What does this fold into?
Amino acid sequence: MSLITKAIDPLDFRKALGHFASGLTVITSHIDDEPVGFTCQSFYSVSTTPPLVSFSVKRDSFSYPKIRRAGRFAVNILSDEQTAVSNIFAQQGADKWKETDWTTSPLGNPVFGRSLHWLDCDIHAEHEAGDHLIVIGEVRALSLQQATATQPLLYFKGRYCNLDASIST
It folds into this structure.
């Protein structure tokens, strides 16, 4: 037996999902002598063997077609010191790279200096899902940074936040 429900209002849906705390990343690549990247909160691990990760991106993304052409990307896991980085990479058309401290990963992707960690990936698969694409990457290299910041940059209820206390299990 199935229940028939009314159509889900997109704003209500977004509000409900805003109550799920997530970390923030910046997905980056480099193609045609141009670094490219965007802020992404829909990032997660998929598999440990092989090492796979995934992110979702809007179909009409300005940056992702360039990343697709490159065939590779880096995931920069942001620290709570990188709110400004998250903000600038969330904007389309901004000069994102002007004041961003970055170097090149083994695969040639931009990686940020003060990130908690970064993952260097080849595009493994891409799936259509509504108004988004689900991109799966195979991790080829990673860096466990010795950053001074130990806290991730989190997003909850439309605002940045960080961890207030440690939880032990």
User: Anything to note?
Assistant: The longest strand covers residues 117-129. The first helix runs from residue 10 to 17. DSSP finds three helices and twelve strands in the chain.
